[in-house]
Amino acid sequence: MDQKINKLDYFYLLAPAWLALELTLWPGFRAGVFSSSAGWVAAFYAMEASIGAAFYFRLRWAVPAALIENVIYLIAAARFVLFTPLDIAASAETLDMAAAGASYRAALPGILYSAFYCAFRLRRGFKGDVV
After folding, report:
1. Which ranges of 25-96 does DSSP label H, i.e. alpha helix?
2. 119: which residues sit within 8 A by CB, 6+ positions away?
3. What proportions of the chain, in percent to the nearest 5, are helix, strand and coil?
4. pLDDT tens per residue, range 95-125
5. Cα(16)–Cα(56) distance, rounded to whole angstroms?
6. In the 8-state DSSP scheme, what is residue 125?
7. Which of 26, 75, 102, 110 could form a disulfide with 30 if both were Cys (CB 3.0 to 4.6 A apart)?
8. Distance of CA 72 to the CA centre of its chain
9. Rounded to whole angstroms, what are the CA distances from 48 to 25, 44, 73, 123?
């Protein structure tokens, strides 16, 4: 237990705060690329909190789990970025365009974090991490 937690991994330790942020002030912050229902958002952050607990207890599966979670997130984000405009265009008469654009903007920081996390982990090659 003498190794330190990487600064980038503290994001997972704050999963309860991100859940509260997404359910109250910033809908669609990270879990919005999967679903906007409160149940799915809570399930997403429960998974992130379990990865945070793995980092806290310095379990060997924490780094690979975080990387896999971010890769899956980026795949979902790519689907979200590519197909949401098509859904918006298909239902342009009945859809509130401002709300659709707001959900798109809200998801951008989470997408950027995941892209940075994956690039950072792959560049470092898992060296010097909590494993």
Report:
1. 38-56, 62-90
2. none
3. 75, 0, 25
4. 666 776 777 788 889 899 999 999 888 887 7
5. 14
6. T
7. 110
8. 9
9. 19, 6, 11, 22
**In whole angstroms, what is the distance from residue 55 CA to residue 94 CA?**
45
- Residue 9's CB is within 10 A of a number of other CB atoms, namely 21
pLDDT tens digits for range 23-51? 899 888 888 888 878 889 999 999 999 99
Strand, coil or helix: 102 = helix
The letter for the amino acid at 24 is T
Only one residue has tokens 């918006």, namely 88
> How many CB atoms within 10 Å of residue 29?
20
Contact present, 118 and 74 (Cβ < 8 Å): yes
Residue appearing with tokens 């998801």: 107
Q: How many residues does the chain have?
A: 131
Q: How far apart are the first and last CA of the chain?
A: 10
